[in-house]
Amino acid sequence: MASQPWTSFLGLATRAGKIISGEELTVKEIQRGNAKLVILSEDASRNTEKKITDKAHFYGVPLRRIQDRFVLGQAIGKDARVVVAVTDAGFAKKLKTLIDGE
């Protein structure tokens, strides 16, 4: 299932300690200015989707959508995750190109 190139790279970022997962922690990182990229799953609830997209837009944080929470969770070595924030600019830049390339 984790055959897309971005999933392996997201796993690397996780092992480097540059990923925050979960809705509340992601919102805090966006507000603090630490989030360089937000990755949101397509199957997020409407409330979560609205909260995350509004915060990301307001604070100027790029947002990318991926297919589902299970792929996102598997990429970071955890159970299903709806949203993650990348806190490193280098990882964020590479992840954007990998996700956009699919």
TrEMBL record:
This is 50S ribosomal protein L7. PANTHER family: RIBOSOMAL PROTEIN L30 (PTHR11449). Coiled coil: none annotated. SUPFAM superfamilies: L30e-like. Residues 10-95 form the Ribosomal protein eL8/eL30/eS12/Gadd45 domain. InterPro entries: Ribosomal_eL30-like (IPR039109), Ribosomal_eL30-like_sf (IPR029064), Ribosomal_eL8/eL30/eS12/Gad45 (IPR004038). It holds the Pfam family Ribosomal_L7Ae. The keyword Cytoplasm does not apply. NCBIfam families: PRK07283.1, PRK07714.1. One of its GO terms (molecular function) is RNA binding. Keywords: Ribonucleoprotein, Ribosomal protein. GO terms for cellular component: ribonucleoprotein complex; ribosome. It comes from the Bacteria.
